[in-house]
């Protein structure tokens, strides 16, 4: 999981790495109010996951509240490389003397983590890497023993980092390596790592990527790095994969497995209708999970039909049916539901759905289910219910 800059810096601070004084803001008023805490001038930074914000207009220094309001208004909601900016970082402006680069990542070719250091930090690091790779110094790491201080100092000298900067940058690099392993990172990068005119060493930007397989142990969720909608949070809470699709789509797909779900989406979209949401229940779902999954889909704005496609292997069709029945009985949804369900405990599941007259495909194909759904939805639109 990639983290936003402000989250990466929180991680760095926990390991004793200094960052500028800064606050997040999600509205113009909030940005103006926290700027009072840092004092002008301040730097406004779009909190997006993509790199190269600076060059894309996502970083701006402002000198007064009027300028801040105009800039914050422009940045909130702006698209940076197709990513909408929903949060700003309001940071004290720093008087930069020198910009360095420090990163820890996995060297896939060597199969080992590597510390990368360079005196040529800043927004052109990709260019530096390509044009003058000799300006990057690398030190391979082991999770079993931390690199010695003299080893890092040697690489910093070869990178032509000099004088008083050497011990300061070295300490920061040591802390980064410690944070990289402790937080299960696959990448932890500070670019630029700056030394100010007053000789203070700071992380001015942070990019942290946490190994997805380690999120639980780190107490994190996939949606943490992005302000999730309430519906997305509900889906995360029950451990299903929910994706909001085209806002003009009126069909929700719920499937027991991502492949089945994607095939179902293709069928719906090929039939001339449009999918508005996708939900993969995963295996072993309970009645309660199924009920909540269905409610999440029904409450997605614009949804008028739901295609539920379950293969009963690890999933139990009776349990799935009980979840559907709960929603049908309690919420009496207006949307059309069509279920295609076969496998483990199918007869019990089918009987439950038959009692509630939920349109059901027993032995037919997914295409048959989509045809039935489309016909039912057309029927509802024309004012008579399909049987
Ligand atoms: P990126 O473009 O997404 O990598 O964003 P960064 O946070 O790395 O900022 C890009 C560049 O903006 C940095 O390399 C700095 O040169 C400049 N910058 C960011 N914050 C400040 C600041 O407080 N003062 C000054 N002078 N420059 C800054
Ligand atoms: Mn940067």
List the helices and strands and how they pair.
Elements: H1 5-14, E1 22-25, H2 28-38, E2 42-46, E3 59-62, H3 65-75, E4 79-80, E5 83-84, E6 88-92, E7 96-107, E8 112-118, H4 125-131, E9 136-140, H5 149-158, H6 165-182, E10 185-196, E11 201-203, E12 207-210, H7 230-237, E13 241-244, E14 251-255, H8 258-270, E15 275-280, H9 287-298, E16 305-312, H10 317-331, E17 336-343, H11 346-355, E18 360-361, H12 366-381
Helix pairs in contact: 2-3, 5-6, 9-10, 10-11
Task: Give a nutshell description of this structure.
By secondary structure, the chain is of the alpha+beta class. The chain has helices at residues 5-14, 28-38, 65-75, 125-131, 149-158, 165-182, 230-237, 258-270, 287-298, 317-331, 346-355, 366-381; strands spanning 22-25, 42-46, 59-62, 79-80, 83-84, 88-92, 96-107, 112-118, 136-140, 185-196, 201-203, 207-210, 241-244, 251-255, 275-280, 305-312, 336-343, 360-361.
Q: Can you tell me the CATH architecture of the largest domain?
A: 3-Layer(aba) Sandwich
Radius of gyration: 27 Å
Number of helical stretches of at least 4 residues = 12
Bound molecules: guanosine-5'-diphosphate, manganese (II) ion
Mind summarizing the main beta sheet? 6 strands, antiparallel
CATH class membership of the largest domain? Alpha Beta
Number of strands: 18
CATH topology of the largest domain: Rossmann fold
Instruction: Give me the oligomer status.
Output: single chain
| CATH level-4 homologous superfamily of the largest domain | Succinyl-CoA synthetase domains
Distance between the termini: 46 Å
Strand content: 25-35%
| Poorly predicted spans | 383-387
Overall structural domain count:
3
Helix content: 25-40%
H and E order = HEHEEHEEEEEHEHHEEEHEEHEHEHEHEH
| Overall form | elongated
> Averaging pLDDT over every residue, what do you get?
93
Structural class: alpha+beta
């Amino acid at each position: 999981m990639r983290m936003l800059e402000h989250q990466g810096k929180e991680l760095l601070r926990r390991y004793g790495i200094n960052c500028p004084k800064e606050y997040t803001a999600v509205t113009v008023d909030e940005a103006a109010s926290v700027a009072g805490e840092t004092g002008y001038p301040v730097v406004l930074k779009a909190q997006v996951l993509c790199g190269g914000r600076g060059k894309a207009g996502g970083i701006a220094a402002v000198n007064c509240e009027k300028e801040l309001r105009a800039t914050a208004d422009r940045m909130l909601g702006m698209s940076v490389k197709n990513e909408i900016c929903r949060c700003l970082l309001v940071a004290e402006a720093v008087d930069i003397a020198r910009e360095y680069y420090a990163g820890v990542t996995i060297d896939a070719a060597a199969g080992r983590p590597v510390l990368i250091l360079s005196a040529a930090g800043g927004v052109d690091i990709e260019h530096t890497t390509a044009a003058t790779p000799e300006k990057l110094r690398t030190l391979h790491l082991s999770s079993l023993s931390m690199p010695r201080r003299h080893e890092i100092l040697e690489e910093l000298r070869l990178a032509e980092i000099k004088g008083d900067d050497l011990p300061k940058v070295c300490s920061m690099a040591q802390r980064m390596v410690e944070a990289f392993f402790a937080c299960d990172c696959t990448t932890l990068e500070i670019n630029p790592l700056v030394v100010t005119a007053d000789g203070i060493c700071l992380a001015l930007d942070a990019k942290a990527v946490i190994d997805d397989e380690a999120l639980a142990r780190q107490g994190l969720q996939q949606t943490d790095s992005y302000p999730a909608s309430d519906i997305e949070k509900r889906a995360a809470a029950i451990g299903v994969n929910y994706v909001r699709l085209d806002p003009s789509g009126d069909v929700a797909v719920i499937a027991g497995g991502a492949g089945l779900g994607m095939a179902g989406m293709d069928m719906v979209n090929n039939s001339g209708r449009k999918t508005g949401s996708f939900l993969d229940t995963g295996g072993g779902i309970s009645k309660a999970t199924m009920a909540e999954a269905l409610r999440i889909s029904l409450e997605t704005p614009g949804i008028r039909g739901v295609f539920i496609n379950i293969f009963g292997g690890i999933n139990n069709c009776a349990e799935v049916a009980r979840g559907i029945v709960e929603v049908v009985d309690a919420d009496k949804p207006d949307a059309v539901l069509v279920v295609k369900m076969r496998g483990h405990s199918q007869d019990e599941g089918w009987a439950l759905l038959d009692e509630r007259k939920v349109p059901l495909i027993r032995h037919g194909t997914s295409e048959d289910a989509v045809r039935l759904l489309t016909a039912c939805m057309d029927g509802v639109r024309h004012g008579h219910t399909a049987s």
